[in-house]
Design a protein that fits this description.
The chain is mainly α and about 90 residues long. The chain has helices spanning about 1-5, 25-35, 40-50, 60-70, and strands at about 15, 55. The chain has 4 helices and 2 strands, in the order H-E-H-H-E-H. Helix 2 (about 25-35) crosses helix 3.
Length: about 90
């Protein structure tokens, strides 16, 4: 779907990049976040950025805003998410 839209110039938004909190419950994602030295939300946001989607994370917590903003600065050489496929 993402490839189809992007090939036609249609922007894709990552509506809920942390899956309404469900990503926090998935052990494999937690393991990957630890591997890269980032939080689960940062990893999820970085993955959506890597996919070329528009990421608009939502939070009312100022600390979370700062952490999520840092996701865009995770270098691609440090964190290229390729080892997870959600079934």
């Amino acid at each position: 779907m993402i490839d189809y839209c992007q090939s036609r110039g249609i922007a894709v938004e990552a509506y809920s990049p942390i899956a309404h909190g469900e990503a926090l419950k998935i052990a494999k994602i937690d393991e990957m976040a630890k591997k890269y030295g980032v939080t689960v939300p940062q990893l999820c946001i970085r993955y959506d950025i890597q996919l070329g989607t528009i990421v608009i994370p939502k939070t009312a917590n100022p600390e979370h805003i700062i952490q999520k903003r840092a996701s865009q600065h995770i270098g691609s050489s440090n964190c290229v998410v390729t080892d997870y496929r959600h079934s």
